[in-house]
Amino acid sequence: MPTSFLEIVELPDGRIALRRAEDEEALVVLDFSADAKAFLQGQHIEVAKAMLNVGVQMAGRLAEGDFQHEEEARVLH
């Protein structure tokens, strides 16, 4: 992926998106349920920012070859 500025935006439908600053197309979209928003007491945007920040950091590490590809299935929690 070419280097560009990324931005986190709240879409009109309430979803949170990560996109290139010069592009309207979302790279990643997070959609919190009403229950999750209630549980987070209105802080879902802060949680989304943290989730996307870690994801971008991990993607950078993957691009640099810092992770080994595993052939077997993994359990995701």
From TrEMBL:
It comes from the Bacteria. This is ABC transporter ATP-binding protein. It comes from Pseudomonas benzenivorans.
